[in-house]
Amino acid sequence: MDITNDSDQNEDILKPRALHRTTSVFLRNLSPVVTKSELETIFKRFPGFIRLSIADPLPERRWFRRGWVTFDRNVNIKDMCWNLSSVRLRECELGAIVNRDLSKRIRSVNGITNHRQVARNDMKICANIINNFDKRSGLWQSEGEETASENTYGLVSRNPVLHNITDFLIEEASAEEEELLGENAACEPEDSTEKDLLLLKALDKMILYLRIVHSVDFYNHSEYVNEDEMPNRCGIMHARCAPPSNPPTQQEINDYNHNFQTKANYLTISTPAEISEKELLQLGAKNEEEEIEKFVTSNTQEISKVKWLCPLSGKKFKGPEFVRKHIFNKHIDKLDDVKKEVKCFNNYLRDPKRPQLPEHPGNSKQARKDVNDAPQSYPPAANPYQMSGYPPYGGAGFGRGMYGYSRPPARGGFRGSGRPIIHYRDLDAPKEPEENFI
């Protein structure tokens, strides 16, 4: 008979870990040339390393990036940060500091969101956002999904969260009863508390689906990009607070719905489609075969009529066709590098988020069109011998259009001008000889 102690068995059982409880280090300065694999190689040496997240480069900070390193909760994060402060990578300090825990995970929004009209409007916006992100991620899609969404205004989806939401979006009114009894007829108001609770319950499911699946905080109308790699997954969420003590006016409801629709509009817009081949060629895309041919031609040097040199290896051949054959047989790695460069450059052109200089407002097509279409107007002719509608002699570059300064007079003044030239001199000085005859 095997007799064991219950306390020993309980000690062997592993307790569940709180995976959402982590500690992290914030990296302020990451050079653009530092790769993620290099950083992971460094941080894997430290105990308790979980994951690494790197933000997009910032143009205003010379394309430097920021990073977050996540560790287990039981790690001494201050000692870890002190050890990382002396680490230099590519002659650049990482700028490691301790990342504080979230001060407030659940944040409240305006209590007007509990109103029936606001909740119904939020449900419409939320359904459009879910359809957009499901389509972007390829979730709950079928072959005839586009045709069905066009015929049903985008409210039909295979997503179970969106089932039967049209029951809450359709408004109901006792129009016939009010018409027969009169608008001012005394009748008991309809108790809609139960319907409002069902509406808010269905809306909460949609909001939680967006927050957990697509990392979209609905009431904050924002998408948390790369949240899966950040220290806190689903860390922040905005929720409704208690209804206000005073019922909101219709103007306040309309203003809130309009402002919320404006802020959340970018979440309902689908991502731009891939750039076409024609536009890609206009941007200067490279052809793989042409680039390989250029590479072979640049590495085929003629020494004499019967001697050709391959600078990659320093060997000499009797003809260019032998150099070409030599490159394709002995320098395959160089050709692979050319192919990688072509692929990388074309992918850069296809990326809508590629770093690029902003277009000047005056260089846009619409601005140029407005300038060309606007008729040029001139002031009426002051000289009776000048035809109206034409610029005055000397061009329109002077006068009031030249920052308020007039056209500089020619040396000696204009002929026939009645205004004498004023000489600025000391008033107590004796008169000049020519002034005695005036």
From TrEMBL:
Comp. bias (Basic and acidic residues): 423-438
Q: Which SUPFAM superfamilies match?
A: RNA-binding domain, RBD
* Annotated SERRATE/Ars2 C-terminal domain residues: 240-418
GO MF terms on file?
nucleic acid binding
Q: What GO biological process terms does the UniProt entry carry, in alphabetical order? A: primary miRNA processing
Q: Please list where the region (Disordered) is annotated.
A: 349-386, 407-438
Q: Where in the cell is it found?
A: Nucleus
Recorded GO cellular component terms are:
nuclear body
Q: Which InterPro entries match?
A: RBD_domain_sf, SE/Ars2, SERRATE/Ars2_C
- Judging by the UniProt lineage, the source's domain of life is Eukaryota
- Show the Pfam families listed in the entry: ARS2
The entry's keywords: Nucleus
Q: Which family does it belong to?
A: Belongs to the ARS2 family.
Supply the name of the protein: Serrate RNA effector molecule
Q: Source species, please?
A: Sipha flava
